Amino acid sequence: MIGYVTLGTNQYDAATKFYDELFGLIGAGRVLEGGEFIAWGKSMTSPAVSITKPADGNPATVGNGVMIAIAMSSPEKVDEFHARALQLGGTDEGAPGLRGEQFYAGYFRDLDGNKLNAFCMTSA
User: Which CATH number fits domain 4-121: 3.40.50.720, 3.30.70.330, 3.10.180.10, 1.10.10.10?
Assistant: First the structure.
């Protein structure tokens, strides 16, 4: 089971503000901080997403094929989360909508180009 996922950032302060606001929308907050590392979750024992500047001192780069999916409770929450990501400076990577019969998702990239989605399962 996933404990947390870490994204590298070259814009630590801007990324911190982006994720504070975005994850606050779903009741998640900072659960761990240290140096140039912050993790957001709903508790210390729930899955989390974190950011950091790479420890090796090299620039952070986007992982090709890497994506983080954030579970939402409804299509309306997916729409809201996706819209907020774009308002905060993220870029659209696929508008919210059904993919298949029950998978509802909206895709976006954060300020560093990392790909995320907000999703929920709907009734058939």
Answer: 3.10.180.10
